User: Fold these one by one.
Assistant:
Number 1:
Amino acid sequence: MQGLSYSGEAEGKRQNYYVFKGSEFFLVLSFSHSKQGAGNFNVVESDAVDYVYERFAGAKGVTTNEVVERGRRSRHIPNTLAALNIMYVLAATGCASIDTRRVGPKLFFNIKGKHA
């Protein structure tokens, strides 16, 4: 965990997610609203973030279910929680944005296109 650097923040439906970059992974942190001093963290491999960005660059309205479906043959995306954390990393690092025009419980992400 040494040498982590702050990468940014992503605003979810109910809370904010703070993303830190390590040498080969990202750390996604969130804090509990109901329990003071409590929260959660998830480790996301950098390779998994790169994998999703490669496959979805330029796509609009992407859901975590779509990410899991398209990545099911890879080791990078075992479930929707992993996909959601990958999407939060992309949003926090500026490679994606959460589409706030859509309502309901599901999050939709717009992935930026690759730069040539």
Number 2:
Amino acid sequence: MNAFSDELLKLKKNVLRRKDNIKNEEHTKHSLILPFVKLLGFDTADPLEVEPEYGADFTIKYGEKVDYAIFVNGTPKIFVEAKTVNADLSNYEGQLRRYFNSTPDVSLGIITNGIEYRFFTDIDNINIMDDEPFFTFSFEDYKDTDADVISIFRKSVFNEQEQRQVAEDLLATIRIRKAFGALLENPSDDFIRLLVKDFYKRNFTVTSITKFKPIVEEVIDSVLSGINTSNLPTKTSSPQMQAYGIVQAILQQAKKDISALGYKEAVTYFKIYNQNIRGTFIRFMFQKSAIIVGVNLPCQTVQQHLAKTGYEIKQSGTETQIKIASLSDVQSLSKLIVMAFK
């Protein structure tokens, strides 16, 4: 296992060194993806183990082919769909799903741009690829624990039952984390009822929910702030602190008093407030491929100011959320940030 981890780290270094010189999909395949397949122990030069351009579709009408089919004991078990190094993989998951669903023997579908890898199987419905990956890793955000999961797909230890059990556990963890995060973000009526039922003996009505919801939200914020890293020294290079610095600079440039500005970093978001926590005027939610910025302004106001930007904008509860690509886009929200601060 240690030897495998070492080899994976070597591959990581090579991938990150090569990626900026990749010109197209073929370069991506040969310089980034095939070395990963080889690391798993499969002979990329042997078409009996790794067959490129494998016919995988319900019909031969369109002649569609998956980039690589990986065989175990003569049977295709893994499909790998390759995209160019800068591709957004979400745009191509449907293509991999079509290939996966057409080939019952295949138990694992992988879509990758050579940097990020998304692993799919069929937990929800047998022979139907799940809508969400059970495991995702990126060489740009590689963790030592990733090797533990990746290692079970090696040719030498290939075991579909073991892989399926790991996939079930990982997918359950992902879904529970999402559900729990959503519950903390916006406590449901049932959750509020569960928290207060032992001491609130009166009939639980809509009025009761209205009464207790802000209290529950405040308690959640308080608890999360006590267990997350915002209470520890924070590196100024973190995305959260970069966002805080950008917002500070925007407000200073607008000649606003930021002496009472503060922030809180929770599990699912990073919020900035004025005076106290109830004065939150902007929140950042950092995702893998985007950043969601929430401001306490009407959706119509935000849409009017950002009409020509092409940003995805939606109302969510009491805030309007804007989807941006990176922190560099925050500057384009300057007027809205100043308005929200007021």
Number 3:
Amino acid sequence: MASVDRRTRSDDTVRGLDFVEFHEHELPEVLHGPNGDCAARALAAWRLPSLALQVDGRSYTYRPSARGLEVVAGEGDAAAVAALDGDAFSDLMQDVRSTVGLIIGDHARMVRGNQQTLIDWEPVFRAALDGRPVYEPGALDLRDRDGAPLDLDRAFAASDPPDAMAHFLATAGFLRVRGVFSAEEMAEIAADIDRAAPAYQPGDGRSWWARTRAGEHRPVRLQAFQQRSERAAALLDDARLLALTALPGDRHRPGRGRDGNPIEALIKPIGVVEGISDVTWHKDCSLGRHSYQCCGITVGIAVTPADEDSGQLCVVAGSHRASLPLKGLRDDLDLPRIGLPTAAGDVTVHLSCTYHMSIPPRRAERRVLYAGFGLPPRPQDSPERLDALRRIRERAPAKALELRQTSIGDDPETDRRKGFDTRGVRSRRAE
């Protein structure tokens, strides 16, 4: 089997960082080693504008130079300046909370410039501190077990050899599997969604809501759905589902506990204008802790058909193996973009580090179940930090509604223009 365990950090190493001491002594020492070369190559490849971080009135600017990454005191003419508190800075440098997580949690305030600049710099931080090279065009070659180009449009059958599916998942970061569940089972789930929806209310902490162009206020994410549907609860122990989560051989398990929120029912209305229903290109580890808990597995069970008109899932093949900005696609990203049309009962599988988005539906609503499966916990893992990240996640839909937007971005026009960029997405009808 092909392991997808990418964990390189553990919670017992996390500590508070002194902002000045880190920049005057710790970071320069790191940059004199191989990680400095890694960061220099990142900046040469991406050509980012300068960024200053500000904590308690002190600032340091990160900027490209002829020598690579240069860090100087003050903020001068930095293109963007982000104000953080001390805990937020410590977490960012140690991959506990990401730039996206800090923005959603209101722990990063842009004094100058926009949020995307801060987000774009994070892979450079990871290059400097973790030695993770940023992705450069041509760096990945997606091949099958025989060395031939991987057929990225392939839809597997549940009876296909597990080794073939495991290799595809580890290489491409996703799977599409036909006919795992029957249409009759999905019809029962659809009826359960209809029955359960009225039990959820705005602000109940168990659901996400959105407003549509038609003036409706709709629940779009029903959490802990296994408590509302016996059929959904049974799926968590269903051998057909568990066979897919077992493909990497890493002993993945329901990621939020069987009594918590292991499975969610999503309703995708047409014409959402406020609130988070569909999310632009992102990674599921975009809030932080990639190096502590990736790769997790997310399984999508198609309750209703999905295609280009009803909001299918799209993925970027191989992106789980690439260090990239956590939100939005760079124009020079050359990895294939694949649409995943599904019939009722089909299943999609994607890794937590795989870029993905679901297109807002245009002609028909979509309904889908999502179940998350995480790597087995280690003794040094911190449940408290994981819970803190979950609270940040739940902050996102409320913040979008407060802003009367469909995202938490600080540039609504950019979100409208580029948010659901489907250029180059390859798609076929579900077989």
